[in-house]
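An example makes the point: we print one protein in full, the chain in one-letter code, the fold tokenised, without further comment:
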Amino acid sequence: MAEAEARLLERRAVVAKLLAERGDTLVVAGLGSAAWDVTAAGDHPLNFPMWGAMGGAVAFALGLALAQPQRRTLVLSGDGDLLMGLGSLATVAVQRPANLAIVALDNERYGETGMQETATAAGIDLAGIAAACGFPVAATVRDERQLAAAIPQIRSVPGPVFVAIKIRAETLPLVLPPKDGTLLKLRFRQALLGPQAG
């Protein structure tokens, strides 16, 4: 591992810190590594991992945040997933849900298809795009100090909040969430709305 890469943050440690003391936060995980990282931090009925919906995590979470304005909604997604649905950032900025935070786990790679470089490896600035769309909070995190400062913003600052976190491009063991879409939907609905929502 190159020295510069070794200095980057480790993805599972970052996600574990973000989800510690999560309370009743609604968590949407983008497909692939983000969903595995969220599951590795502890499977939870208020986690909704995306399966086979590349580019859809932010749009899904926006609808959830608008429908549940009293609950914090957190999206954890990879840079490849966000680049696939980049227009959703503009829609979020127009809707301005104060309870929505988006975290890009940016390893500058498409982790599910062979670790090819994404546009962020060529300098595309996801936080800069969010800021240009009008997000009141948009930042890039590169080290532990910046992560510690960003966590309170991600958890509670009125948003929408966007934070890109630069992480190592590494292949980690799979920790898969349930694959049954019906189970995930019903589990999430019941955890959010009560047993009668089945």
